[in-house]
Amino acid sequence: MTDRQRVIGFVLCIATILLAVLDTNIVSSATVQIVSDLDPVHGVDKIPWLIAAYQLAATAALPLYGKLCDVLGTKKVFIGAVATFLAGSALCGMAGSMGGLIAARALQGIGGGGLMSVTMVVLRELKGPEEDGGKGGSVGGIIAGAGMALGPWLGGVLADHADWRWIFYVNLPIGLAVLAAAVRVLKLPARTTRRTIDFLGAGLAAAFSTMLLLVTQWGGKDHAWSSPLIVGLIVATVAALVLFVRRQATAAEPVLPLGLFRIRELRYGFAIQGLVGAAMMGSMVYVMIYLQVVRGIAASSAGLYLIPMAIGMTGVGLLSGKLAAAGWSQKTFVVSGTVCASAALALLATLSTDTSLWTVRAALLMMGIGFGQLVGQLIQLVQDTAPAEQLGVATTGVRFFQTLGGALGAALFGTVLSRVYAARGPGGTTSTIGRLTGHAHQQALDAFVSSTNVVFWSATGVMILASVLATRLPGRRKPEPADANSAAFAATPSLHR
Cα–Cα distance between 340 and 347 in angstroms, integer? Predict the structure, then answer.
């Protein structure tokens, strides 16, 4: 490829990353309008599924993408992922019910998982020998921060001033332009080596993650924990996990080699990334819901409250990249980031119905500073430590744990919110708050705030656990690999959630 084609290819990758980042959180500030339109009675209780469907589908598809690139070639898989994402976006915009929207979000998530993971491979194959390996983290940090703020804000603006369906339709012109340019410009290495695809292992991973989410979503709320359905799902989840682990131990080309877990940095890196995904996704969603339901802030204005978080992520992402280049260890950033994020979540757990909104902004700025130290350094830690021949599966693995953690976080925190509100509220579900008046309405708001406090305290506990695990990471910094540019470019997409 010529230098001009490489530049165009890099821009295409940035566009696909931005699409994936936006659609991870663009729904969060438009949930009230979506529920009012599609299911005003029971819709709020389905919000966790609306958020989790995208993440769950992306998680289920992730193990396959790396192998598909090896067998079919990166360009074909990249184009297929973008096309799937666009098909899901179109169906989301045309949805006539919450169930239909959730199903379309799942299809969109399958493509979205590819936008994040396959783009890593494309970036590596576009890499030129003269390029600076350190710039990938800086570009990724800027995109992470921009997407963090722009997604909810854009979703809110479209929901308030146009129609919530446009938060999905807006993907179509951008995605179609990416497809057309990718077909004409991308000239990536062809695949000549025939390798098997562990479809059985990927299917078992998808089954395990799906059933685990069903248990967390239904258990104790829609069905008693002792009910035959929940008990059966728990048994099936454990069985799927056992079969998956056995398959990975015996498969010729496993989608997640068990040998990776023998490496200390990878073992703890996977676990911390999963916990960060859970806390980050849950906290963002319920900050937006608190601002709209309790404080009566319009969706577009609520999205603007994430700007301090975006500033924190972008600023600290750029600074940490320079400090890392100067020799600071990745453990330093991971420990500092988890502690800072824990403090921010604890501050959010003290919110009331009349807390100063500057307190919310300060907590989100602090949260951005914390997460900004984590999203880049964790993936770089994994890539620096993984064996060279397993860089792809290690990168896919850390993405798998992150997206699974995000899906579980949305579902678990949603369950916590519903159960606590049911115990403390004036009766009914959270969906009925908007129809209450007088004392009952104030009582409902107080109960809702106390319920969100429990959610944020739960997220704080998750991040404290991540802090403890971070202290177990080795303090040394591994020397840069010979192919440093490749690792740096591969890290870029991982900075976005």
Answer: 11
